[in-house]
Design a protein that fits this description.
Helix content is 80%, strand content 0%. It is built from 17 helices and no strands.
Length: 383
């Protein structure tokens, strides 16, 4: 097996296990609350907020950590932080649980930025679309495994603690494999660290128009995705599992498309337009469960179909190198998560103002989701 494929296996599996731990903790939240003495949902919401802040901070500093420590050490630290998921099933109190979850989220945030310079360095242009697609669905795969398999896992392992422990042990095994085989270097033979550092800074990234268009194109979709799983079930819309499953199928189709065709923009615009229609269909299906199920499937498929093309589009820009890509994706994720933190709060406020009625909030979030289509109109094909 070539080393690069082993590295991709480590990246994919590590992030998949991170998703399993995150979703598993949400699944077993009642048990965790009882174990740590939590008596209110407000405290439970702090755990989610801690992860969100960790993602914003982690993605913003990710490029700096690569420059400061090198990709191998930075990636190692991120994996160690993700292994702190082992604390969750045994935390004696809320404070320790909150700190460990924050640090775990920080590790996950760093990892998603590190994917891109590693893929750019080690994979040929003809391979990147497929690898980007795999990395894009790693979280979905982990989510699906835990959503559909949590009951089976509890029965197989005995209780919820052993389920989360097993997932954490998997993360630790990946850490050991990484320490043995993950000896990588992003510098080219002709370049030194100072050249990479000086070529493209975070300030340069913030001044780059592409960074903002690229990030805001995805930010609305990410915000909608979070609202979908946080609030839609409370509104009686239960088809979220279809979104996960068809999202995986859509990402696989996106890998095939992006690997076969060099043009990225058409698939972004087509998928973005269909996303809007499907989002409205799901949100306003009412008692028509067939329409809701179809809309959920179409939404999931077309939300993830363009992801390989979107990521690859950024990697194919003229003058790209590992440092530039690190900064671009560091800002991409940080801006996206910041927007995706603000939007659900506004969504909830709209529901409260309307005395629990979701109609206006659904219109708001569907329009926000439309940022993917609008942003795609401002992106340009790489020639």
């Amino acid at each position: 097996m070539k080393k690069k494929y082993l590295i991709e296996f480590i990246m994919f599996t590590s992030y998949m296990l991170f998703a399993m731990s995150w979703v598993g903790s949400a699944t077993f939240m009642k048990d965790i609350m009882q174990m740590t003495g939590m008596h209110s949902l407000t405290q439970a919401s702090f755990l989610s907020t801690a992860l969100t802040f960790a993602k914003i901070i982690g993605t913003f500093i990710a490029a700096w950590t690569i420059v400061k420590f090198g990709i191998r050490k930075a990636f190692t630290v991120a994996m160690i932080l993700m292994c702190l998921s082992i604390v969750t099933p045994y935390a004696p109190n809320f404070s320790l649980l909150l700190i460990s979850r924050f640090l775990m989220g920080l590790g996950g945030a760093l990892i998603i930025v590190y994917f891109n310079p590693i893929v750019y360095k080690y994979f040929e242009p003809s391979e990147r679309a497929v690898v980007n697609g795999l990395n894009a669905i790693a979280f979905n795969v982990g989510t699906a495994i835990m959503m559909f398999g949590s009951g089976f896992f509890v029965e197989a392992f005995g209780n919820w603690k052993y389920v989360l422990t097993t997932v954490s042990l998997g993360s630790m095994i990946m850490l050991v494999v990484w320490l043995i085989f993950g000896k990588i270097n992003l510098d080219s033979p002709q370049a030194n660290n100072s050249q990479l550092v000086d070529k493209y800074s975070v300030l340069d990234g913030l001044k780059d128009k592409f960074t903002w268009v690229f990030a805001l194109t995805y930010a609305g979709l990410l915000a909608f995705y979070i609202v979908l799983f946080t609030f839609y079930p409370k509104a009686g819309i239960i088809q979220t599992k279809q979104v996960i499953l068809f999202g995986i199928i859509g990402a696989v189709a996106g890998m095939i498309y992006s690997n076969k065709f060099s043009r990225r923009i058409p698939i972004l615009r087509i998928a973005g337009f269909i996303q809007i229609i499907a989002a409205f269909g799901l949100s306003f299906a009412g008692d028509n469960q067939s329409l809701a199920a179809v809309s959920a499937g179409v939404l999931g498929f077309f939300m993830f179909l363009p992801m390989p093309a979107l990521v690859t589009l950024a990697q194919e820009r003229k003058g790209m190198n590992a440092q530039r890509i690190s900064v671009t994706f560091s800002l991409f994720w940080s801006i996206s998560y910041l927007v995706a933190t603000i939007v659900p709060t506004i969504f909830a406020k709209i529901v409260d103002v309307n005395n629990g009625d979701y109609h206006s909030a659904f219109i708001f979030i569907c329009l926000i989701e439309g940022s993917f289509f609008i942003g795609s109109l401002f992106l340009r094909e790489n020639r």
